[in-house]
Amino acid sequence: MQVVITAVGPDHVGLADPIIHYVTNLGANIAEIQMYDHDEEALFAMLLRIELADEQYEAACEALKEIGRLKKLSVRVWSPQKRSQKPRLAICVTYRSEPALALLRAIRDGQISAEAAVMIGNRDACRGIAEQFNIDWHRIGDKQGQVDHRQMVQLLDQYEVDYVVLARYMRVLPPAVCWEYAGGRIINLHHGLLPSFPGIRPYHEAYASRMLTYGATCHFIVPELDAGNQIIYQSTFTIPHGMKLDEVIRLGQEDNEPQCLVEGVRRVVEGEVQLHFHRVVARK
Amino acid sequence: MQVVITAVGPDHVGLADPIIHYVTNLGANIAEIQMYDHDEEALFAMLLRIELADEQYEAACEALKEIGRLKKLSVRVWSPQKRSQKPRLAICVTYRSEPALALLRAIRDGQISAEAAVMIGNRDACRGIAEQFNIDWHRIGDKQGQVDHRQMVQLLDQYEVDYVVLARYMRVLPPAVCWEYAGGRIINLHHGLLPSFPGIRPYHEAYASRMLTYGATCHFIVPELDAGNQIIYQSTFTIPHGMKLDEVIRLGQEDNEPQCLVEGVRRVVEGEVQLHFHRVVARK
Amino acid sequence: MQVVITAVGPDHVGLADPIIHYVTNLGANIAEIQMYDHDEEALFAMLLRIELADEQYEAACEALKEIGRLKKLSVRVWSPQKRSQKPRLAICVTYRSEPALALLRAIRDGQISAEAAVMIGNRDACRGIAEQFNIDWHRIGDKQGQVDHRQMVQLLDQYEVDYVVLARYMRVLPPAVCWEYAGGRIINLHHGLLPSFPGIRPYHEAYASRMLTYGATCHFIVPELDAGNQIIYQSTFTIPHGMKLDEVIRLGQEDNEPQCLVEGVRRVVEGEVQLHFHRVVARK
Amino acid sequence: MQVVITAVGPDHVGLADPIIHYVTNLGANIAEIQMYDHDEEALFAMLLRIELADEQYEAACEALKEIGRLKKLSVRVWSPQKRSQKPRLAICVTYRSEPALALLRAIRDGQISAEAAVMIGNRDACRGIAEQFNIDWHRIGDKQGQVDHRQMVQLLDQYEVDYVVLARYMRVLPPAVCWEYAGGRIINLHHGLLPSFPGIRPYHEAYASRMLTYGATCHFIVPELDAGNQIIYQSTFTIPHGMKLDEVIRLGQEDNEPQCLVEGVRRVVEGEVQLHFHRVVARK
Q1: Which chains touch D (3 or more CB pairs under 8 A)?
Q2: Which end of chain D has fewer CB atoms at under 10 Å, N or C?
Q3: How far is C23 from chain B (nearest CA, A)?
Q4: What is the pLDDT of residue A131?
């Protein structure tokens, strides 16, 4: 089975060696290793993707977490095959509710075979949707919407989340969080076509360029400064001349974005695509 | 009626004054004036868009062309309303035949109300299509495909062309040609989404960015160094993961590009859109 | 003499015609006309650059302003040759004082032959400098620094300003203001290399790109949506590896930016460069 | 001592495991691992940076090369400390001779403490310089300048090269070559400011943008599709208005580029900077 191991700690001395030693002694096949050393913060991270015999999985989880405890590292072991029938999603939101709502409806209607384990917001705007669908809601932001992202990670762990879905969650995840859930577990909806319109106002920028085609992009977040956009799905719509920006945004937010997120999440949870060496590839 | 006057000459001394004098004395309303002075070549150009009483049109044409003869300027007078039932098109090509073919079929089938007045190629690759549709064909390129663009302008004048359609014509029009036919008369098909992928290999660039959405753009060519893309129509298609670049290009060239050009030309010749101060606007 | 006429009004009906009529009847040579029609606001603008006999200047000023009064247009007539010995500057600021201070010192020390006619701030941060150099100070911003730019134009007119110097004035001038003072009269200091780093955080962006070279750009502001940067002067500095961003910004703000602005303003007020068809050219 | 191990092979099955096993059994500290899987070619690569006791180095070289022979991998072991007094350079060229010439003079005059081990060209244009400085010359390009880059790697190995200096070598190194010499051993001179002007005609592009500042960039080449530019040194020069492009290019090629390359190479061979997790950092 494919197993993803992530480790995050304050420096690389004593991080890579014990984990790699353990894995090589286990006789696992190493499919991918990536390491990362942040230059501004004391943050060292590693991703291992390995092939393991099914019966070794539980013991490996235990042993690696024990290494984490001993070495004071944040270690996670996860396999996309463990819960492939019903992966557990955390749906993270800020103001816009349409994409989250579309995703919850798609799950309810059996269009997407997943479980909405928890909803997390840095604002209260989408709390009503969580109530409507009877899903646990956690507000993690303060009055200004500022987030202590360690709290987010605690929630993700507590709810045993397989995938983190950023459904118009308008905060940048810090590198540490990206690494904790590295390996194709964080799915973001961006409200513009990537890589052309990466900013926070993609509708405005495309409109200022007088484009007639607008789009949204569903992609994995990869914790590398220079990593490109790991696109899972993109959808577009075309407008007539003279349409006002407000109307364009409305079309995008109410129709195109929700549809884009639903299809993107479907592709991931049904195992059609996976992250492989910073690229999204079709899973054979 | 709306009348577009263009004038091109080697310098601005004595270019603007006589034409503007004539037009103001005529009592015409001036809707737009743009001037241009190339800094590397001796090339001065002016565009006037005016409102004229219908009965003044013929006399104004004569008088302005006479000014051109006297002052050694290249002067053109044109009105989109003169031949609005059946505008005459020049279809310019290089290698790819699909967009031109789709356009000719759309004209034949009455989908676009225009007349294919002439086909112009800098290569011979599309000659057969001209023969098939019984349209005059002119090859203007030498063995390397290099073009004397004055010859192109002569042909455009000789065939009394209203609109110049660059149907995957793979040469850059020099500024002088753009000015001779300024005012929304040159329609280009670009095989990528503008403004994101402006280069000569937009499929390759979008593919290298791992995009899943590809597009084509039909736009006016505006003879300003810094002018943005004057988009008439854009169309897109989405591919699955793992599709080879060859296949993407094939889909784009054989399906998306022809459709994009046909719809773009239709919008122009049916008067749905027009160029107005460097912008494409819906014609009221 | 070279004369620049600008006119701004709510629509083009009746704007261009009377001014162009007057100018052509005057027998002036027209060197440049540019027109502009804003698509979101009711804003129409025109720039004329003409050659006029010196003795006609005063009468033309009067007549054109009278046309403005009659037609309810905002009309300005200006010549760079009228006050070429001691052009009058408005120095506009927000927080950073270093560029303004360097400019005032250069004027005091005779390095730049100009007069600091007025200082305008949307914040109070630089008021002390105005007092120190005994220059009239006007605060035009509210508590949030928001500006009524009509008030700015009134001040510029009242102080008979030749050039507007934006010395780290951190507000975007609306198109109407740019047109009122079009023709190479608005000089901006941008704290990054243009066109590569156009945003509001150019140091951060260049730093994130791990550049070792940082720069500043002094340029004319041109009131066209698509106009490129009209660069008057650029200066750069190179840093060693490992320098913190704070230190880079400090070097740039305290040393490179002030020097860049002083040299740029010097080039303009001493007539070394001018704006000519959207380009900065050396004045012969 | 710091040791860099690179391995390149046709797939990852059996590549990572034996090398990582060997290194972990050796008791070496792992400082960095990066892996790469090309999606278009069958190309798998790995970089390990480890800390090793000095006395283990020779044995580790032997053992790892033996693993390479057995597993049919291309394995290289290298340490920047092995020949730190006089690193051996391969200087690769195409047409322009100035940067190579400046580098050879700096070596001759003791400004740079390195040895020019070999000159490699895909054209013959710079052969005379190799003869003048009595350095072995190898032409690796055919009549069109096309290169079999395996031949280049053979030469680099044969001459026991520490650093590969691309002194205006106008070919793109294929990923395999970049990986063989990964870890901060390939130094490129780019004739524009990175990341703003990355193309093959940076002077033309900056000139078309009407910049007054031009630059050159000395950087490591890193074999990642999405890696940013690993800048070692940048230098710039400023031009007056009206300077012709030819003259700008001449200034850049004859003065700025050579100086940029010499300073960049000096920083590397004297150990002032090194590559560390895709970043250039000051070596402590």
Answers
A1: A, C
A2: C
A3: 10
A4: 96
Is C17 among the catalytic positions? no
CB contact under 8 A, A228 and D228: no
- Is this complex's ipTM strictly greater than 0.95? no
Cβ separation of B213 and A195 shorter than 8 Å?
no
Give dist(CA D246, CA B91) in Å, integer: 37
Q: Which helix (H) or strand (E) holds C176?
A: helix C175-180
Residuewise pLDDT in 10s, chain C (284 residues)? 999 999 999 876 778 889 999 999 888 899 999 998 877 778 889 999 999 999 999 999 999 999 999 989 999 999 988 877 899 999 999 999 999 999 999 999 999 999 999 999 999 999 999 999 999 999 999 999 999 899 999 999 999 999 999 999 999 999 899 999 999 999 999 999 999 998 899 999 999 888 999 999 999 998 764 566 799 999 999 999 989 999 999 999 999 999 999 999 999 999 999 988 888 988 86
Distance from CA of B15 to the nearest CA of C (A): 9
Cross-chain Cβ contact B234/A238 below 8 Å: yes
Please give, rounded to a whole number of angstroms, the shortest distance from the CA of D192 to a CA of chain C. 12
Which chain C residue has its CA at the smallest distance from B14's CA? C29
Percent of chain B surpassing pLDDT 90? 77
- Min CA distance, C158 vs chain B (Å)? 31
Subunits close to C (at least 3 CB pairs below 8 A)? B, D
Chain C, residues 145-164, CB within 8 A of chain D, namely none
pTM for the full predicted model: 0.90
DSSP chain D: -EEEEEEEES-STTTHHHHHHHHHHTTPEEEEEEEEE-SSSS-EEEEEEEE--GGGHHHHHHHHHHHHHHHT-EEEEE-TTTT-SS-EEEEEESS--HHHHHHHHHHHTTSS--EEEEEEESSSTTHHHHHHTT--EEE-B-TT--B-HHHHHHHHHHTT-SEEEESS--SPPPHHHHHHTTTT-EEEEESS-TTT--SS-HHHHHHHTT-SEEEEEEEE----TT---EEEEEEEEE--TT--HHHHHHHIIIIIHHHHHHHHHHHHHTTSEEEETTEEEE--
Comparing CA positions, the residue from C173, C207, C213, C168 lying closest to residue C193 is C213
Q: B36: which chain C residues are within 8 Å (Cβ-Cβ)? A: 277
| D-contacting residues in A 240-279 (Cβ below 8 Å) | 276-279
* Region label for B271, one of left (φ > 0), alpha (ψ between -120 and 50) or beta (otherwise): left
Residue D106 has pLDDT above 90, yes or no: yes
Q: What percent of chain B has pLDDT over 70?
A: 96
Q: How far is the first Cα of chain A from the last one, in angstroms, to the nearest whole number?
A: 14
d(CA A257, CA A93): 14
Q: Is the Cβ of D71 closer than 8 Å to some Cβ of chain A?
A: no
Banded model confidence at residue A108, pLDDT cuts 50, 70, 90: very high
Q: Tens digit of pLDDT for each residue in C62-82?
A: 999 999 999 899 999 999 888
pLDDT digits (tens, 9 = 90+) for A29-51: 999 999 988 777 788 899 999 99
| Interchain pair D24, A17: CB under 8 A | yes
Asked if C216 reaches chain D (Cβ–Cβ under 8 Å), the answer is: no
CB C52 within 8 A of CB C28: yes
In D, minimum Cα distance to C207 occurs at D195
- Mark yes or no for CB contact B236/A241 under 8 Å: no
Distance, in Å, from the CA atom of B216 to the CA atom of B96, rounded to the nearest integer, reads: 14
Mutate which of D190, D230, D241 to test chain C, going by most C C-beta atoms within 10 A?
D241
Return the H-helix or E-strand segment holding A68.
helix A57-71
Candidates C213, C228, C233; nearest CB to D236: C213
Identify which of A240, A236, A191, A241 has the alpha carbon closest to the alpha carbon of residue A214. Answer: A236
